User: Fold these one by one.
Assistant:
Number 1:
Amino acid sequence: MPAAELQVTDQSERERVVRWRVQELERAGYDPDAAQSIAERLDIDLHTATDLLRDGCPPDTALRILI
């Protein structure tokens, strides 16, 4: 497979992962902008992000902790 095709496939997979993470973060209670910011940072653990809210941390504080 040529490198250009591989990059498109990898990018498409990354986009799918980011979309899924946005959905999960919004479901947990983040607003759409915060969810997008967190979702794009694949170095931020999704469980940590959702656990903060589940444990009672306000979304704006959780965002500052994570980013």
Number 2:
Amino acid sequence: MPNHNQVVLTGHIVRRPELSYSDKGSAYTNLTIAVGRDYGDDTDFINCVAFNRGNFKLAEYIADNVTKGKLVTIIGKLQIDQYEKEGQKHYPAKVIIDKCIYEKPKQQGSKPKQEKSDEPEEEFDPENFDVPF
């Protein structure tokens, strides 16, 4: 049966990804991305988690290479958990990351392929969460 649970999100990393280890020593990384909506000025904050899988150290790779404010595309699966607290049911959602795509920093000494513009570059302001897309 094909897997029909696939999520693709593009947004900015809200805070530095947090690398942690389970009681059994398995690494996982939690991160949150800010994703703009197509309508209005609303932004959704999506919790995501990456796990190491065998020799594929995705959790450690993301923790070492992805920084706050970076634009990323996350491909993964939506997981909705359920718990009850003080008589109320809660259904927090998160994305289990299969792939994280981001622009790697340019190496020092390499020449830019585009001409430099006189216009100042627009930066991601985590306090304002004005996501430019």
Number 3:
Amino acid sequence: MPEQPQSEEPGADRPVVIRLAHSPDPDDAFMWWPLVGVRGEGPAFDTGRFRFETVAEDIDALNRRAIAEATGDRGDPGTDSRRLDVTAMSCGTWPFVQRDWKVTACGASLGDGYGPKLVARREAIVRPEALVEPGRRVLVPGLRTSAAMALRLRTGGRSLDLVAVPFDEIPARTAAGEADAGLVIHESQLTFESEGLALVEDLGAWWHGETGLPLPLGLNCIRADLDERHGPGTTAEVTGLLRASIDHALAHRETSLDYALGFARGMDPALADRFVEMYVNRWTLDFGVDGRSAVASFLDRLADLDLVPRATPEFVAGPCGDGAVR
């Protein structure tokens, strides 16, 4: 059932509504359920003057939504076009919307020696360098996803025939021969072999070999105008609550995993647990020095190849400086 429009203007006794968008995957669901409750019964801890609403959308859809808003194109008027206050976003997309969104110090997904995987049919394995040849096609989960941008870096920024398709269709369509290779993300990083596919290259491992750093994939971003709309300090307050949500989820792992399984698309609990552990970890609590360096290096290399605008993020933390509420 579509969400019903409602006023977002807080009154004297009405909380400030914060709309938080995330990808419909176990790791994001794991992090954010404490802000709304497992069954809509309310937050797992005191969120003060704020009431959170969560919206689950594919990461490519969220990327395109952020860019459309930045360019003034609100898209299909039949869809829910109410503004988001916090959203997941690909690191490769953020430079295009940097004026409107800040990067929070918590809530990101980094691949520490692993990440999106370039795969192909076992009988048609191909080197990454060969994908620049005329006539080669690669299925990707969005042209401005960090996965696609990492592949562009891997091939030196050379022209590639990248075809954007829904992320969950990439394994089957690659196996059916629609393209020479496919770039898999989310749970398909763990299950692609069951589709008859073979690994060409793990882009997170390649990036780590190049830089010694984790590969920045999904960022968590917050509106740049929250303080203007809801008072000085709002950005820090909300970011502190985001960090508190992750802390609570990790401290109540069994409940968090049980909720996350509802977003696991048929994964068994052990596999879902493994996937969550890959992308909800110390990097998610705070980028730290290496995480910040990873983002800077990734964005600088993309900009050097004219793949994104030059951008240097400001990492927004909560009132204690590290994103935590104490």
Number 4:
Amino acid sequence: MLGFPEGESFPLEYGEFAKRYGQDFIESKVKQIVLATPEQVAEIIKLIDLIKIDEKEIAKILLKGNVENWTELTQKQAMATVSWLKKKIEM
């Protein structure tokens, strides 16, 4: 059985927890996440102000990155966002 149905109890042991949560997920290799640098975040904010992107489009960008604010972007996501914003300036 995978999951944690509401109101159900189970023994708090690693084997049972792993079976419910997904042992392959728990024991998978660690993936390092490198967050955007303060400089990247500042550049994104500067470009957004320059281009005058509305809040609706900003929300779409953040949703696509699966983040709530610019500081949660990975460096790769931040580079892609900066590139996309710069292309909008060139148009």
